[in-house]
Write a structure and sequence with these properties.
Blueprint (H helix, E strand, L loop, with lengths): L4 E8 L3 H12 L4 E5 L6 H6 L1 H18 L15 H25 L3 E4 L1 E6 L2 E6 L2 E12 L3 E3 L11 E2 L1 H6 L6 E5 L3 H12 L3 E5 L11 H11 L3 E5 L2 E9 L2 E8 L7 E3 L1 E4 L3 E3 L32 E3 L10 H15 L13 E3 L4 E6 L2 H7 L3 E7 L4 H5 L6 E7 L5 E8 L2 H14 L3 H5 L10 H11 L7
Parallel strand pairs: 1-2, 1-6, 2-3, 6-17, 8-15, 9-10, 9-15, 10-11
Antiparallel strand pairs: 4-5, 5-6, 7-16, 12-13, 13-14, 18-19, 19-22, 20-21, 21-22
The structure holds flavin-adenine dinucleotide.
Flavin-adenine dinucleotide binds next to helix 1, strand 2, helix 2, helix 3 and strand 4.
Length: about 475
Amino acid sequence: GKAEIECDVLVLGAGPGGYSAAFRAADLGMKTVLVERYDTLGGVCLNVGCIPSKALLHTASVVDEVKHLPDHGISFGAPQIDLGKLRAFKDGVIKKLTGGLAGMAKARKVEVVTGVGAFLDPHHLEVAVAGGKKTIRFAKAIIAAGSEAVKLPFLPEDPRIVDSTGALELKSIPKRMLVIGGGIIGLEMATVYSTLGVRIDVVEMLDGLMQGADRDLVKVWDKMNTHRFDKVMLKTKTVGGKATEAGIEVSFEGEQAPAGPQLYDLVLVSVGRSPNGKKIGADKAGVAVTDRGFIDVDRQMRTNVAHIFAIGDVVGQPMLAHKAVHEGHVAAEVAHGEKSYFDARQIPSVAYTDPEVAWAGKTEEQCKAEGIKFGKAVFPWAASGRAIANGRDEGFTKLLFDTTTHRVIGGGIVGTHAGDLISEICLAIEMGCEPADIGKTIHPHPTLGESIGMAAEVFEGHCTDLP
Ligand code: FAD
């Protein structure tokens, strides 16, 4: 039959990748349809990811900050937690942002179709909408179907075993919690729950938490966070779980496995995310999907089918919102006929823990693995007036330079607000800055941001803020 909806560009999935692509496409004058299975736009990031986690982490950081105030001569009582209100604060944040997106879609005349979409052929998508089906005929399509949390098949179905979405629901405050997987998502949730008073164990298969970041950064985080954990079990696997009345009985194997099973009130499984590429009928459109569910694309975000693009988590690592957004813009522009490319020199990573850990460009580990000749400069925050005034001078700022080209190729920051501070290093890498470009840039005093200029001066051998 005839398609009910015709469009220039169909975007499947309304996460950061999808809505960014749809909005750019509409701004370029294309008739754009955005298909999303959930009632709100924003995908994982706004509804159950970046944003709600940061709302709770903000709250946690204020609570933790206040704990230091007795040292400044100011004391408060123990925190009283109203979980319902905390949840309402977080939900309010989400609503404000997703509501904003709905308004932005409307203003651009992006047609939003709510329902589960699947390709019928290279030019049609069928959407299972409330009470029926809709067929959309498209000239071009952008797949932005995202990813979902990986499950551990040997754990039982039980409301006390959750993924990040379940943990963000904040149904109750457990006494003992197990975090399976010591990556960014797991550690962010561990930060929130531990501040709420929960005793936490973390189990990680590899030999360190927060993989991907240089160990010198993580070491500072480690030291500041020992108080949050009863046990951090490295090189250890979770091998079984039994739901009992008393709790979830979890057993472990490996180097730091405890002698017997351990009992938890809440188990968070944060062992990675898997792409949704296999769930959208991609084969009917002729789009190739890898065994793991990723969709391979070229630098213009084209799949193997020239008029179908893919962006965001579904095309691969790093699974981050800011990467998805930039890819979305490229896909929309190329669909419009422009010569755009995704050509990022760096994609920053941030753990919004306490302290925050942020890194961009090459890590030292990568430089070593790739045989890059590099020089490194570190500015310790113990020499930063602002960090000392904040009572938080445990951090440091690190810059990595290619010693052949003299350009900055990477950097990392551990300390409060590291995630906000890393942007300057991102720009420096993209612009191919040399140490003098950063060191001779006048940074405001006294700020944590100064530490980036000072690290550059350290590299040049004339930092006057260090002994
Ligand atoms: P998604 O956001 O996954 O959106 C895909 C959308 O497609 C979803 O809304 C889904 O419902 C829809 N969809 C899929 N299939 C269909 C279908 N067949 N029909 C209709 N709709 C469909 N990233 C950061 O950069 N910073 C952070 O601080 C951060 N924190 C995170 C915290 C948590 C707890 C989690 C889980 C993730 C976090 N991320 C963070 C990762 C970030 O959320 C993702 O990288 C980002 O959402 C990916 O965007 P996307 O557009 O590719 O896909």
